[in-house]
Amino acid sequence: MKGVLKLGDIELNPSQSQAVDYTDGPLLILAGPGSGKTLTITEKVVNLVDEGFSPDRILALTFSEKAAGEMESTITVSTFHSYCNDLLREFSLYVGINQGTRLVSQEHSHVWGINNIDSFGFENIAIPNRPYDLITSLLEGVSQLHDHLVGPQELQDFVTRKLDETVEEEERDDLLKLADLARFYSHYQQYNRDHNFMDYDDMITMTCRLLENNDVVRNQIRNRYDYVLVDEFQDTNY
To answer: Domain tally for the chain?
Structure first.
């Protein structure tokens, strides 16, 4: 199909050809860096179109802008964050954001954390004279919780359950610090909501929760694509 992909004459090895030709169900490509995974996925798109799949019903997701550029075509090609951002904008009424919601920078989050550190109600984390490193650690902790789709209330519930058990003193200290992290996490989320902000982690987490919890949206997206390809899957959390 004219205008879909222009790759020239590319020779694939037998394993790559097998991956390209297979269209009967889920497929995972396991290969090391620089082994041609993006090339294989790109060729697979060409093959899917040749097999009769409509280009506008093929979705390709990747982490890097470079890989997205390599797969430039009439199919939907996007980074994870960009695609999630588009979905959140499209279904903003379901997730409680508006079209004016902006991406908050790491620098802004750091400044907010430092300026408001006395209001977080920490009970077990000592506040140093220069709190930049502490705020960095707390924001990194929030990001890791996002990676596992854990919200502040879920973290607090976990801490409460564990503290109800018999635990060693060292573990108890760690749990109490996690309770402070949950407080910080809750303040951070509330601040972002109040100021129409979201960060990169929010894009992924909010989209996952939207698709998990909303049957209407999930079915609409499911019916939108016949084939979904994910490049750089090893960089995801699953």
So the answer is: 2
Phi-psi region of 196 (alpha: psi -120 to 50; beta: other; left: phi over 0): left
**Do 70 and 136 share a structural domain?**
no
CA distance 195 to 13: 52
Q: Which helix (H) or strand (E) holds 59?
A: strand 58-62
Higher pLDDT, 88 or 11: 88
How far apart, in Å, are the Cα atoms of 183 and each of 47, 152, 178, 180, 189?
51, 7, 9, 5, 10
8 Å CB contact between 113 and 139: yes
pTM: 0.79
Domain that holds residue 116: 105-194
How much is the average pLDDT of 71-79? 71
> 112 and 167 share a domain?
yes
| Separation of alpha carbons 116 and 136, rounded Å | 14
